[in-house]
Design a protein that fits this description.
With 497 residues, the protein is α+β, with helices and mostly antiparallel strands. The protein folds into 2 domains: 3-233 and 383-428, no CATH class; 260-330, no CATH class. The protein has helices at residues 3-11, 47-72, 75-88, 109-126, 128-142, 238-258, 274-288, 340-352, 376-392, 394-406, 415-420, 430-451, 461-468, 473-487, and strands at residues 40-43, 98-101, 144-151, 160-166, 171-181, 187-202, 205-211, 216-220, 262-270, 292-295, 300-303, 314-319, 326-330, 423-426. Strands 1-5-6-7 form a 4-stranded mixed beta sheet. Strands 4-3-8 form a 3-stranded antiparallel beta sheet. A hairpin with an 8-residue loop joins β3 and β4 (160-166). The longest helix has 26 residues, at 47-72.
Amino acid sequence: MNLIEQFDRMFGSKLSKKAGDTKIDNKISTFIAPDMEGAISIDVSGFSTQLFDIDTKWKNTAELINQYRTLARTPEAEAAIDDIVNEAIVFDINQDAVNIALNRLDQPDNVKEIITEEFENVLKRFDFNYSGDEFFRKWYTDGRIFFQVVVDEGNLKKGIKDLRYIDSRLIQFIKEVEKETTPEGHEVIKNIEEYYLYSEEVDGINRTMKIAPEAIVYADSGLFEGDGTAVSYLHKAIKPINQLNMLEDAATVYRITRSPERRVFYVDVGNLPKTRAEQYLKNIMNKYKNKMVYDSNTGKIKDQHNTMSMLEDFWLPRREGGKGTEIETLPAGGAFDQIDDILYFRKKVYKALHVPASRLEDDASYGFGKQSEITRDEIKFTKFVMKLRKKFSNIFYQALRTQLILKGVIKKNEWRTFKENIDFEFKDDSFFSEMKQTEILKERLEIMDQMVDYAGKYFSHEYIRASILQQTEDEIKDIDAQIKDEKNDERYKDEDE
């Protein structure tokens, strides 16, 4: 039994009759195409023609991903991506990098415990606590990420056996749209089929496989071009990164060519005829000159024959009766310390990647908690990272859905209700979080001290605790109970009592 048949049996439906979770009612016709974001659309009526279009778009997508990966290796982009990944995925030896939150889910505690346990199993299948940062980096760079769902065909109730990463260049999401023309001449959508195409070259032969949607875990960036192609968050940085690279190369060449002092050789050729004088000058020049060129790929200067040198001296003939052979030195260029243009484009790269430009500074410090110390850019960056986490969490939703259905915890038609009330909480940097909470508590206590004289007069104690200290009703009850118990505890009594 292949993957398609296996998942057809598991979910009780045929792939060819499915449109994701959407059922097409023959009594209700639609003429609006479904959302094609992140997928290649195929019109069944022209399938033979569309296959060529798929191949073209597939190659373009693979080339785009290759471009993203090349850009990600530039020092500035790599530093920015490191900041983003380090903020988004935080590891702790005692805690998971991400946890499931079921506070809004209206289900019995035993069901919540089962869901929590199954999510922990999903994390283990991802090996997320070890490889989570690399997965996030690949998703951010490529603008998409794919995993194959591996199950035990003999016993599907065991759940997901493994989740294996798939190179984004080898797989494509397809939406096949079947249309028909009404008697009135209107084109309406009859059916939609969703699947993945996996293509890999083996021994010179291109092998393509059609895979059911349930067999793949997929998440895109949420950013799309006009034709629905998913793009990376690096897409906006393509131009500034290329501009920065060209400017740095140009500045390097300029400094190399203008920094050394050049010489002018006036060679006495006597009364030699013009042709012989030129040959004599050429022989002298070849004998003494050095040819050095700049390699932009390695950043090195090297000898390269038969190439116009950047550092060539000037050789000029001088006739008999002149000053004879003479060597004159030309001064080097100046203004080598002006790099404002380079710094401008470096900041532009960081801005395109939504990373605060202040992080470019080597001596940049970061404040904890106080509003005066947290810049507006840092606040925007935090919100941006939260948005990235939300988009990336689609891999958890899809994997958890498959796991719960396989284990028989929920039915397929129940997932939508469950999904709406399930959240994923990523771990934040513990030191930053603790320092921030400490600073916030300090500020609240200072405000409360100023309100003590007004307690019971203009403000109730309950109001102060709820509005100033931000204590919830449950926390107030627990704190009051603890205070009552501690009054009878010898450890907390004053010595004077």
